[in-house]
Every structure is written in structure tokens, then in C-alpha cells.
Design goal:
Helix content is 27%, strand content 32%. With 401 residues, the protein is an alpha+beta fold. Helix 2 packs antiparallel against helix 4.
């Protein structure tokens, strides 16, 4: 009797607890709101004809660089330039005290006049030799001596003129002139200092570098070189009006490749230690903005012009090493597409395979969605940039290949 009462009470308590739990569950279910579809921004796949470029780090260098040294010795009398200014070929940079050299030139010029007088006398004596021999007024030996003195006088005049011309050069060299047009450095020696003009030990006065155009040197890796050579041999690389292969340059404080140039040459061998070859390009520098010695980015064409598919870099996700994008279906659900990306082009990534080109891809919100999930799609704002061209700006050609 007691056992039956206990079981009856236990069943009643269990039924009551189950009802309470069921009521609570119904209440929570009724209070649970419906989750809205996540909002994402989408953009269509862009199709464009472009040339792919590879970027390399380069260093600028002047075409011509000269160490300005004197050709004569003496004391600096005058410095005729300001540090860092542009000078033209032939401009006087330094003046060495010319008085000693002027005196030497005057002495040599006087020796020339003296030699001319001796030559005139010897010439008159030699001219009378024939008549004197005919009249037997002089011996044959004397006649020969007169002819010899005449030839010696001629040689002496030539030697005096050579010495005078050397003195004249030394006098002209007291004005140290710019051997090229370009930008001059500071004066390493100032007025009153003695400079040595002896060959092999001449004093360094300043340096001078050309400004326009400039060289840019860059190390190109082996794979890029092989790809470039294959395109060049197939004549698949676009050239300018002069048949030169164009390259572009970006300085450290610039946001785009504003400088245009062309490839001048490659080195004749690959560096076995670095696996790269030295490229030299030429760029116009009329405004003087490119200073020799700067680090810069240079880009070289590494493809022929071809159609390509581009998506925003933010649209690409990574799934255990596999790159993918989410595309938007007609029913506003997302679909998973495995893709093979290429290089980066003006903030957009080239897609080698995985898309057809007519799709719309999710740009923002890739982390919030899953395949088959409905979404609320908003169009992404189109990025506009003045002067954007069809040429591709490749940042790291090897990336995502």
C-alpha cells in the first residue's frame, strides 16, 4: 500500500515537471525571432584586356658621373658655383690663380718670337749659299753648315711653338670648367687652398652628375627573365614607336607608376649567387625629380595583351590552401567556387580559372556566409581613379600563381 502511494505521487510529480518543461520550451520557441539574411556587398566580375607587369626593386643612377679635378697646380682664387645647382657644360666652376701660368705663357711666347728671328737669319744665309758656292766665296763645308743651321732653326721654332701652346693650355686650365651638364655637388676646397694638378694625384674639387635622362638598375629573377625572353623572341611584347620595350617607375613617395621609360639592356650573364640578372632602363628626368641613388619600384611587361577576369581582392577567401569566391545565384543564395588567382591589378586580382566572367561575387561579408545561404545583396561602390589604364599593375608577379 505504501509502495503504491509512493509510485502514484512520483508519477504525478514527473508529469507535472514534464508539463512545466514543455510549456517553457513552447514559450522559448514562440519568443525566438526569425534570423534575417546576412547583408553582403557584391560586384560583377570585371573583364578587361591588359598587359601583366612584374615589379622589381631598383636603384637610380646618373648616366654620367664626373670627379672634377684640376689639371694645373696652384691656389684657388675663386669658386663660381653654389652647392647643388645645375650647371652647363663649359661653365667655370673654379679659378686657380693664373698669374704664374700667365707669366710662363708670356715667356714661351717670347721664345717663339726669338726662334722666328733665328729662323729668318738662317733662312737668309741658306738662300745665299748657292751664289757664294758659285763664286767660290765659301767652302762646301760652310754651305752644308748653313743649311744645317737653317733646319735647326726651323726645328727650334716648332719646339718653341709647342712649349708656348702647352703654356697656353695650362693658362686655360686655371679656369676649371664643367666637363658635362648636370648637378654639381658642394665645393670640397674653397678659396685660398692649394690644389695639385699632377696626373694621378690631382686634388678632388667636387663631383658632377648628369640629370636627364637617368638609369635605373634592377635585379630580375631567373623565372621572369626566361618568361621575358620567350615573349621577346615571339615578338609578343608591345613596343613603343621606336621599337623599344616600355617600363614604368614609381618612387618611394608616389602612389602610381608615373614615370615612363624603356629597357636599355640586360647584363650578359646571370649572377649565380643571387639567381638574378641586372636590368638597365632609361627614364626621362626633365623635372629633375629622380635623384641618383634613390630606391624605386620598376615594372616590366611579362605578358602579351590578353583578356582577363578581375575580382576585388577582398572577395577571395582561403579554405585549407584552396582559394575560393562566393558567387550570387538568381535566388540570392551564395555558391562556392574554387578559383585559381593570378597577379594583383590595381587592387583587383586576376582569376586564371574557376569563373566564366558573367558572375557576381560577394566582396564584403565573405566570413558571414556559407554555401547555399540566402543573403541580402547590396552593390559595392565602384572604385574610380582618374587616369586608370588597361595596363595591369602587378604587385608580386609570383604571388598567388
Amino acid at each position: 500500500m505504501l509502495v503504491r502511494d509512493f509510485l502514484r505521487q512520483f508519477s504525478l510529480i514527473a508529469a507535472l515537471a514534464g508539463g512545466i518543461l514543455a510549456f517553457a520550451g513552447c514559450t522559448r520557441g514562440a519568443a525566438q525571432p526569425h534570423q534575417p539574411a546576412p547583408s553582403v556587398t557584391v560586384a560583377p566580375v570585371e573583364r578587361k584586356e591588359l598587359v601583366e607587369w612584374a615589379e622589381f626593386t631598383g636603384r637610380t643612377e646618373a648616366l654620367e658621373s664626373v670627379e672634377v679635378r684640376p689639371r694645373v697646380s696652384g691656389y684657388i682664387q675663386e669658386v663660381r658655383f653654389k652647392a647643388g645647382e645645375l650647371v652647363k657644360k663649359g661653365d667655370v666652376l673654379f679659378v686657380i690663380d693664373p698669374r704664374w701660368h700667365q707669366a710662363e705663357f708670356d715667356r714661351r711666347a717670347a721664345e717663339v718670337e726669338q726662334a722666328k728671328v733665328h729662323l729668318e737669319n738662317a733662312q737668309r744665309e741658306a738662300a745665299r749659299t748657292s751664289n757664294l758656292l758659285t763664286n767660290r766665296a765659301i767652302s762646301i763645308e760652310e754651305a752644308d753648315a748653313r743649311q744645317a743651321r737653317f733646319q735647326e732653326a726651323k726645328a727650334a721654332l716648332l719646339a718653341a711653338e709647342a712649349a708656348r701652346d702647352t703654356a697656353k693650355l695650362d693658362l686655360e686650365y686655371t679656369s676649371v670648367r664643367a666637363p658635362i651638364s648636370g648637378r654639381v655637388s658642394r665645393a670640397l676646397l674653397t678659396e685660398g687652398n692649394y690644389v695639385n694638378g699632377v696626373a694621378g694625384g690631382a686634388t678632388l674639387l667636387t663631383t658632377l652628375v648628369s640629370v636627364d635622362p637617368v638609369y635605373v638598375y634592377a635585379d630580375v629573377d631567373e623565372n621572369s627573365l626566361l618568361k621575358f625572353n620567350a615573349l621577346a623572341q615571339a615578338k609578343a611584347i608591345e613596343t613603343d614607336a621606336d621599337g623599344r620595350i616600355p617600363v614604368e617607375l614609381e618612387l618611394g613617395d608616389e602612389q602610381d607608376f608615373a614615370h615612363r621609360g624603356h629597357i636599355e639592356s640586360f647584363d650578359n650573364h646571370l649572377d649565380a649567387n643571387t639567381g638574378s640578372i641586372l636590368l638597365r632602363a632609361v627614364f626621362s628626368n626633365r623635372d629633375g625629380r629622380i635623384v641618383p641613388g634613390l630606391f624605386a619600384r620598376i615594372r616590366v611587361p611579362l605578358s602579351e595583351r590578353h583578356p582577363a577576369m578581375l575580382v576585388d581582392e577582398r572577395a577571395i577567401g582561403t579554405d585549407q590552401g584552396q582559394k575560393f569566391v562566393f558567387t550570387l545565384s538568381a535566388s540570392n543564395t551564395v555558391e562556392y567556387r574554387a578559383v585559381k588567382p593570378g597577379p594583383l591589378v590595381e587592387g583587383k586580382r586576376i582569376i586564371r580559372s574557376g569563373l566564366e566572367g558573367s558572375e557576381t561575387v560577394v566582396v564584403n561579408g565573405v566570413q558571414r556566409v556559407r554555401p547555399g545561404m540566402p543573403v541580402e545583396a547590396q552593390p559595392a561602390l565602384a572604385a574610380t581613379s582618374s587616369g586608370q589604364t588597361a595596363a595591369a599593375k602587378v604587385r608580386g608577379f609570383e604571388n598567388r600563381e
